[in-house]
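Journal club side-thread
Mid-discussion, someone asked how the predicted structure for our own chain would compare to the paper's figures. Pasting it here so we can look after the session.
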Amino acid sequence: MVRRFGLVLPVIGLLGVMPGSIALAQRPAGDAATFAAYVSTGYRVTPNITYTTASGMELKLDFYRPAQASGPLPTAIFMHGGGYRVASKKEASALSVMPYVQMGWNAVNVEYRPSGVALAPAAVEDARCALRWVVQNAKMYGVDTNRIVVTGQSAGSHLALMTGLVPESAGFDRNCPGAEPLKVAAIVSWYGVFDYTTLVDDPTRDYAVTWIGGQPNRKDVAARVSPMTYVRAGLPPVIAIHGDADPIVPYEQEVREIDALKKAGGIAELVTIPGGKHGNFERDQVLRAWTAIDAFLAKNVVNKTPVNTSAAR
């Protein structure tokens, strides 16, 4: 059975607060005990599964799933943030998949090649390979391939958008070809980049400069790895969460994204966090965002048929 929030609201309030917050003191003890029993007896984690090898690096993912599912389940594929840097690890974002665990979904936490190993578009290729792996192993892990959601934060949000929006003709699937269509039901974007062409030459956006690098064709690469390039009719629904005071990824990026998707006839929703920076939102802001996400997923994933983004543009 797929749950809606229930237990999820007390826990997600912890995901957006800084260390030293009083949120833990405010959390009801009963919910902690119930959730501990639920996770320890009802869920299994298979860590560090190699989903592909690229640039001499075995790329891993962690798979969270209910111990006793009655059938294929909705599945969230999560990509961590960190500016595509070597020091950024999937393990640091393990708590970010907990809301999906509490909803009774499968959850997949994915690593990808950082800029110190391979420049753009390597991470996009890896994210697409992770989706391919999930689809190809759906029967073994109980994945409902009609209910796959891609999501992430910051750099991971950009990769989620690329994973869900690009067509097969874009050429990002060379490392993991396959006959099965790569379709997603929805995208949940947390403060991600929509258009790298406006950022790649801006020295204040070091994540863009270091990831795309000093490649002589960097403008072309920036366009190729920009979700903006692939906006068209027939895309999966997108919900975006972004603080309007974000100093890292301009809020205007998400506004343009949602506007462009709507103009193309798509389902797109923007949750603005007033005064919000680059993540680390206040507890009430995280609750507001996840309440919107819950309603969005119930409407557009649980009860809707996903689209196939593998078809040529």
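Post-session note: The domain at 8-308 is CATH 3.40.50.1820 (Rossmann fold).
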